[in-house]
């Protein structure tokens, strides 16, 4: 039986191996480059998957999970740092006068991890912790666009792509065409694709080495601001994104 110190060092090795990769890596490849016994490696990856530190898809590709990304963003580290993050988002929300927040990928979904809600009587409330579809949200499409074509095809091939609202993409080819545009512009929108009457804009938050960490988004009811009106606040989102990236890099 492995001792606790040995188990911890192996867990750290597996997480470090996975986090350093530019893209999801097949589990056999990770095992090949490790001295950890194959059965032990499989068991530890399963445990890390269960705890959401890693995510393993149906094809055996391994990539950082929601908990690992949460740590990278330092969202739950302590009250002072959480307050700093919220202060940055509050500044954006005050300028846009709409709900703004951060979403991170979790497998085939996006998770809302921080959000500043507006005080308008008319609101569409999407609570922290809510999981949303990658093919029908600005944040989700932004994440998909950050992947290689092969990675996107694997994920999209596993999606139901059900029609959730009047403009939801239900055809993979049409979604792929939009993802190419998003990848070039580094801006993603939701034009009533997730919820009828809701429009949203999202831009990427990246690590110091250029890896996608999260999306910074703003959304609102279409009756208050059209998508075109929301897009006029892109300079505000970009300034806030720069603040967030600077904040994250100070912590790492």
UniProtKB/TrEMBL annotation:
GO BP terms: negative regulation of DNA-templated transcription
GO molecular function, one term: DNA-binding transcription factor activity
Cytoplasm as UniProt keyword: no
Protein's name according to its UniProt entry: HTH-type transcriptional repressor AllR
Keywords: DNA-binding, Transcription, Transcription regulation
SUPFAM superfamilies with a match to the protein in the record: GAF domain-like
Domain IclR-ED: 67-252
Transmembrane segments: none
Superkingdom of the organism of origin: Bacteria
DNA-binding among keywords: yes
């Amino acid at each position: 039986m492995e001792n606790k110190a040995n188990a911890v060092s192996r867990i750290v090795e597996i997480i470090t191996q996975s986090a350093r990769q530019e893209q999801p890596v097949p589990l056999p490849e990770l095992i090949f480059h490790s001295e950890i016994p194959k059965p032990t490696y499989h068991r530890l990856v399963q445990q890390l998957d269960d705890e959401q530190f890693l995510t393993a898809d149906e094809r055996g590709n391994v990539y950082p999970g929601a908990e690992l990304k949460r740590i990278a963003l330092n969202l739950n580290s302590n009250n002072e740092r959480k307050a700093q993050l919220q202060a940055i988002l509050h500044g954006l929300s005050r300028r846009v006068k709409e709900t703004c927040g951060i979403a991170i990928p979790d497998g085939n979904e996006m998770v809302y991890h921080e959000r500043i809600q507006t005080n308008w009587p008319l609101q569409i409330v999407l609570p922290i912790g809510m999981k949303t579809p990658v093919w029908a949200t600005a944040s989700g499409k932004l994440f998909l666009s950050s992947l290689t074509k092969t990675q996107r095809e694997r994920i999209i091939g596993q999606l139901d792509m059900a029609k959730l609202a009047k403009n939801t993409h239900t055809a993979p080819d049409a979604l792929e065409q939009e993802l190419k545009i998003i990848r070039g512009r580094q801006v993603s929108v939701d034009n009533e694709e997730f919820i009828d009457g809701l429009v949203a804009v999202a831009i990427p938050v990246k690590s110091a080495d250029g890896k996608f960490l999260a999306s910074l988004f703003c959304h609102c009811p279409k009756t208050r601001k059209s998508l075109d009106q929301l897009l006029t606040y892109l300079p505000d989102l970009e300034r806030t994104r720069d603040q967030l990236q600077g904040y994250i890099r100070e912590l790492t």
